[in-house]
Amino acid sequence: MREKMASKIYVILFFCLIVFYPAICISQGQNEAEIRARVQEYENAFNRGDAKAVAAIYDINGSHTYANGIINRGRIEVEKGLIESFAGPMKGTQIKLTPEVIRFPASNVAVEEASFILTGLRMPDGTDVGPMKGLCLAVYHKQNNEWFAFAVQCMVPPPPQN
C-alpha cells in the first residue's frame, strides 16, 4: 500500500516538474532579457550624457555608490549627481557595460554582476586618464512589470602588484 502511494506521489511530482519547470525557465529567461535591456538602456543614456534618463532606471529610493566613494541616495539625488558629473569630470565619457552574471533570488528581485570600461575621463588639466575598468553589483526589483535599480555599487580594483 505504501509503495503504491509513493509511486503515485512520484508520478504527480514528475508531472508537475514537466508542466511547471519550462514555465519557470521561460520566466527566468524573460526576466534576464529584461535586465539586459535595462542595462543597455542605462549604457545608451549614460553615453548620451542624459542624466534624467539614467536616473529614471533607478527606484525612487534607489542608491548608487560610485567607484570614487560618492553615494547618491534616491532617484533625485542620482540625477543631480549625474548632472554635475556630466558637466564636470565625466563630460564626454563613454561607458561599456557587460552583465556577467544575473541571478534571481526571488521572482521580482535580480542581482546583476557586471564589468565596465569607462573611456574619455580626463584629469583637471585635460590629460586623458585612459580606459578605466571596474565592476558593479546591482540589485533590481520589479515593480508594475518594470525593473528598477534599487542599489548599485561599483568599484575599480587596484592594479596588480608586481
Description:
- With 162 residues, the protein is α+β, with helices and mostly antiparallel strands.
- Helices cover 40% and strands 35% of the residues.
- It has helices at residues 2-48, 51-55, 75-87; strands spanning 58-65, 71-73, 94-106, 109-119, 132-143, 146-155.
- Strand 5 (132-143) and strand 6 (146-155) form a beta hairpin.
Features:
alpha+beta; 162 residues; six-stranded mixed sheet; Nuclear Transport Factor 2, Chain: A
Question: What's this, in brief?
Answer:
The chain has three helices and six strands; from the N terminus they run ααββαββββ. It is an alpha+beta fold and 162 residues long. It is globular and about 80 Å long.
How are the SSEs ordered, and which strands pair?
Layout: H1 2-48, H2 51-55, E1 58-65, E2 71-73, H3 75-87, E3 94-106, E4 109-119, E5 132-143, E6 146-155
Parallel strand pairs: 1-6
Antiparallel strand pairs: 1-2, 3-4, 4-5, 5-6
